[in-house]
Amino acid sequence: MSRRAASALLASTLFVSALVGCSTDSGPAPQAAPATPQPTSAAPQPTSAAPQASGTAPAIPAGSAPERQFAVGVRQLKLNRDGDRALPVTVWYPAAGRAGGQPTTSADAATGKFPVVMFSHGLGGRPADYAELLTRWAAAGFVVAAPTFPHTSRSSDQNVLDVLNQPADVSYALTQVLALNTRNGDPLRGRLAADRVAAAGHSAGGVTTIGLFTTGRDERLAAGIVFAGTALGVGTAFAGAAAPQLFVHGEADEVVQYASGKAVYDKVPWPKAMLSLPKGDHGRALLSDGPALRVVADTTIEFLRWTLYGDADARDRIPAAGTRDDIATFDNRL
Asked: How far is Cα of residue 43 from the mean position of the Cα atoms in its chain?
């Protein structure tokens, strides 16, 4: 398929999502991570070991993920790519203090070095819409950076074809976020595990995420999570070193058909898994607390613990998290 034809098909498909909505019209305020175990010690550090075999496990040295929950801090970065693509980035991160409660603006970072997850919102969305999920990731020991895209966010012209430019936006934003690790005086200086990075995204952000492993392959990425995504416009020519992928898709998705997401998943040549929600729609369960969100959150957290901390025990817990309470089914090829 030519790039022009793929672009036209992408536009017609995702135009529907502009009408139905990749996310709600008014995103919820950032919510606290669940108040589970309270802090007992500093974050465990990823430990060094021989890399595991490429193609069968993440190319991350073996280590242990934090078992505790963290307080969550939040800050905003004002970025601009090439001078004409404003990319404000919301960053949620593990913070010092007691777990639970609302994220605290510009809180001191927790002690430790934390992997980074780049998250891409859906068409007509914004990062805050996904705060229920993303703050859970931050509370589990991940720095989550979510750009607001210039032409597909809620306040923009919502030019769906600009999705094809978003993989480069994410790569640019990732470079700027990782630079904080060595910036004098920055609150995240020395707190980022810059060699442990994943990408995730929902709907149009899922297209963006797939593109980061195909047409816009960013070799810094060790793993990906695709929520309700399709490969239209970015293709399925997955490239580079093996990067495990987790797909999450509702079987009743009214915007991006489940079969379309499954077709992309089937093309992934690396370790992979698919969490399917038989009663799930286009992803509104990601936006507010509920049983489905808790299953999705727990499954994705265990996946990130395995792929970014090299935690083998977390890998073993992924299937149980994905099949809890009969909310989802789990195809496991990790």
From this structure: 21
Q: Which amino acid is it at 306?
A: W
Q: Are 293 and 133 in contact (CB under 8 A)?
A: yes
For the stretch 2-14, what's the b/e string if a residue is b when 16 or more beta carbons lie within 10 angstroms of its beta carbon? eeeebbeebbebb
Give the domain ranges of the chain.
3-19+69-333
Separation between Cα atoms, residue 143 and residue 277, nearest integer Å: 27
What's the distance, CA 199 to chain centroid?
5
In CATH, the architecture of 3-19+69-333 is 3-Layer(aba) Sandwich (3.40)
Q: Which residues contact 16 (CB under 8 A, 6 or more apart)?
A: 255
CB burial readout 284-316, b (16+ within 10 A) else e: bbbbbeeebbbbbbbbbbbbbbbbbbbbeebbe
pTM of the predicted structure, to 2 decimals: 0.86
Q: pLDDT truncated to tens, each residue of the chain (334 aa)?
A: 444 444 444 544 443 443 334 554 333 333 333 332 333 333 333 333 323 333 444 579 999 999 999 999 999 999 999 999 999 999 999 999 999 999 999 999 999 999 999 999 999 999 999 999 999 999 999 999 999 999 999 989 989 999 999 999 999 999 999 999 999 999 999 999 999 999 999 999 999 999 999 999 999 999 999 999 999 999 999 999 999 999 999 999 999 999 999 999 999 999 999 999 999 999 988 888 999 999 999 999 999 999 999 999 999 999 999 999 999 999 999 9
Kindly state the DSSP code that residue 324 receives in the 8-state scheme. G
CA distance 197 to 205: 17
